[in-house]
Amino acid sequence: MPVLLPLPPSVFFISTRRPKIPLVMISSASKFAPNATIHRVPGFSPDDSRAASEEALRRQTSPASVTHGGKGVAIVWFRNDLRLHDNEALHRAFSTSEAILPVYCVDPRHFASTHRFGFPKTGPLRARFLIECIEDLKGSLVKRGSDLLIRHGKPEDVLPMIAKAFGAHTVYAHKETCSEELLVERLVRNGLRQGAAAKLQLVWGSTLYHIDDLPFGSADLPDIYTQFRKSVESKCAIRSCFKIPMNLRPPPSNGLDEVGGWGGMPSLEQLGLHEKKCDRGMHFIGGESAALARVSEYFWKKDLLKVYKETRNGMLGPDYSTKFSPWLAFGCLSPRYVYEEVKRYEREREANDSTYWVLFELIWRDYFRFLSIKYRNSIFQAGGPRKVAQNWSQDQTLFECWRDGRTGYPLIDANMRELSSTGFMSNRGRQIVCSFLVRDMGIDWRMGAEWFETCLLDYDPCSNYGNWTYGAGVGNDPREDRYFSIPKQAQTYDPKGEYVAFWLPELQPLPTEKRHFPGNSYIKQVVPLKFGIPNNPNRQGNYNSSTVFRKQKRGMNNKKHC
Ligand SMILES: Cc1cc2nc3c(=O)[nH]c(=O)nc-3n(C[C@H](O)[C@H](O)[C@H](O)COP(=O)(O)OP(=O)(O)OC[C@H]3O[C@@H](n4cnc5c(N)ncnc54)[C@H](O)[C@@H]3O)c2cc1C
């Protein structure tokens, strides 16, 4: 039986031209139960999940008649491409060798500290997600006659040693764009040259549009997203997905004996982390199988693609947006696969603004990745790509209030608690908390970006630092300088306070209209007593629960107001 559900808050407010029927027919499968505390993503049962991913993989696999097409051993070095489908590195290795050795290096640098502020570089939730991704990849390789060699260590130490033991001629891997990853590529290349007679072959595979198909070089990349999008949409075609080889031949076992076997799965403890139990909100399952199942669930079973544009600004529950980002970030999901599925949906069900809008958002993702090539390390620097001179505060107390969800603003506190409990936050929430930290608290945006780096399951340097530079008004596009008014955002996107009450149960007893303005008792409960009221009048929006509210209510901020 289909159920009638009110559309998420965004639908009520985004357009006054909408018909006055704020109800949509959606299948009972997509019903969001606000009282349920944990939502597994994908929401399929393990059996349904397996069936959906196997079906997708079957469609993405080449016929058995396609066999290895070369000589010797090739290594596939898996990095942020933890998938079999649409994997050019795997495809190239298959067609240039008679045996393949898939390798994953658990790089200790990923579990050290963030660059400037010393937060954990990878928090336990993302580490757990990564372990699940590796486990799933290993399982899929085993099903195709291969396996995954897992080593704890730096790729530049591990790969030359393994290449030598197996006499491999080539290491294939996907290319990255940011400085830490580029350094590793250089070191691996040198190490292979010196320690083994193998070469490193890097391929491009992280974006919807291939870098070689862009109508401009990275130096000429447009600084305005719309120009970039229109140009690629009109001048480039999206390449087809690479098919998965059916049977992968492993290398001779004497090489394996020499290196001490396939190696075990990493555990959180080995990574110096402790399990963090997620007791409410979304619980994402890592791996390509879960990613393909989520696409199947969101597009086909729940049929949510056709309403994506209306629901995408929501904040509560698994279904207001695709939730593809954690899998995209680890490369468990190829954006070109998402594109092919959107096109199939458009052929078999319907094409509308929503089906297009998922691609529109994926082009943002591409854009930030290409920008990271153009602007290099400036995306990590305080002044950003435009080198804006500004004195930011690094006040630890203020930052901790924000980080721990103890600002006294329910909308900020709820979002920050969701982030640390689940590793996820909606796009709407990210924009709001970023604006608050930077514009109301006056805190160095890089502290926020590094905290996101610690916590986000979908952390990706290009999208994270790209979006933060936009949010802080130091991005490449000078027009992107927006201030998010909390009362306005609350009224538009959480009018009944359902989102804040989910994350701040102490607000549940309050009438809905009071949940965003709970008054002093809430503030006293959450904001630390030691909190002083900053009084630097030059700063854009001194943080002070009463003055910020007054300022926001009057809409006094001189930035573009959202
Ligand atoms: C301050 C800030 C930091 C962010 N950090 C990251 C990050 O580290 N990693 C990350 O993947 N996204 C980041 N985003 C972008 C965006 O918030 C997430 O991609 C999105 O919320 C993921 O949810 P979804 O998959 O349901 O998105 P959907 O709305 O379903 O969108 C589909 C896909 O489009 C892409 N996309 C959508 N919006 C953006 C965007 N603004 N920038 C880049 N790609 C986008 C994502 O790959 C996403 O999975 C950040 C945004 C902000 C404002």
From TrEMBL:
Cofactor note: Binds 1 FAD per subunit. Binds 1 5,10-methenyltetrahydrofolate (MTHF) per subunit.
Site feature Electron transfer via tryptophanyl radical, where: W392, W445, W468
Residues that, per the record, bind FAD: 308, 321-325, 361-368, 458-460
KW Flavoprotein (keyword) present: yes
PROSITE patterns: DNA_PHOTOLYASES_1_1, PHR_CRY_ALPHA_BETA
Reported cofactor(s): FAD; (6R)-5,10-methylene-5,6,7,8-tetrahydrofolate
GO molecular-function terms, A-Z: deoxyribodipyrimidine photo-lyase activity; DNA binding; FAD binding
Composition skew (Basic residues), residue ranges: 550-562
Residue ranges occupied by any Photolyase/cryptochrome alpha/beta domain in the UniProt entry: 72-208
Keyword tRNA processing recorded: no
GO biological process, one term: photoreactive repair
NCBIfam families attached to this UniProt entry: crypto_DASH
Function: May have a photoreceptor function.
This protein's name: Cryptochrome DASH
Organism: Acorus calamus
